[in-house]
Amino acid sequence: MSETEENLPSERETPHEGAVGKADNPFADPGLPPHEHRIQDIDERAAKRSERTVAMLFLVSMLATVAFIASYVAIPIDKIVYIFPLGHVSGLNFALGLTLGVALFCIGAGAVHWARTLMSDEEVADERHPIEATPDVKAKVLADFAQGAKESQFGRRKLIRNTMFGALALVPLSGVVLLRDLGPLPEKKLRTTGWKKGVRLVNQSTNLPLRPEDIAVGSLTFAKPEGLEENDEDFANKIAKDALMLVRIQPQNIKDKQELAWSHEGIVAYSKICTHVGCPISLYEQQTHHVLCPCHQSTFDLSDGGRVIFGPAGHALPQLHITVKDGFLEAASEFAEPVGPSFWERG
Length: 347
Fold this sequence. Notes:
Elements (H helix, E strand, L loop, with lengths): L2 H5 L31 H4 L1 H31 L5 E4 L3 E4 H27 L17 H17 L6 H21 L22 E3 L16 E6 L9 H8 L1 E5 L8 H5 L5 E5 L11 E3 L4 E3 L6 E3 L5 E4 L8 E2 L1 E4 L2 E4 L16
Antiparallel strand pairs: 1-2, 3-4, 4-5, 5-6, 6-11, 7-8, 8-9, 9-10, 12-13
């Protein structure tokens, strides 16, 4: 054998014509292995066990969501518990985190177990297609969706379907319940004040009941309901609605007929709370009978029903109907409308 013949590759080493080795094309498709059926595909009893497992996970999620809501309501916010190895932690935060975590985990675990054991697991190769969908592609997508729904056995596995719907329906309640932390519900507290028929007007500075002769023409006097004391636990919240201002105007200078009827010898009583954002009004111009809110310069005319003559306030100041009994000024009724910012026109 010559030296040339020795350097030639043998027949075994010579690649076939047109063939590409792995060394030449490392991305060559080695081919998919044969599909192996799962036990659930061939044994209905195993499929039922998987179905019950998924349903149990969804059911646990539902129970955990209920426990989340119960913990939020039942556990005091200042409850401290010892949890090993965390140490002393807030009992409420721990319970909320644990129950919400279990609820979300069980939904995810149930979905994963459902997909791995009951949904179709056959590998399907599909070619890339243009972004713009053709009618044929749309028809194929709809057909694939229908086929996928059929293969997922969503309609057949009613136990899974119903428990999954239950878990997904309950979990959002956790977020709804947390809205309670935005503050207590106002209910009708913003629509009522401490003023009622027969409640005397008390000077806020001297703490003494007011007589008509205590109010001079051109003066501005602040009043509160009798019985409201500064050492009361809820004084700040109550005075924020009950604060009253009194001015005395010559009756002939009062333009509004209702204002005149609700006054006593020219003494008119108006809410001190601005109808814009609730700032206390404290500036009075006796020549024009105007009061000014120092926050945003809303201006009201106390000789014309407390109407707005300037600024962002949207409503007139509420007037309190007053009268005299046993020589002292008192309320003849409640305010005709809620005091303060005009939230009420939207509710």
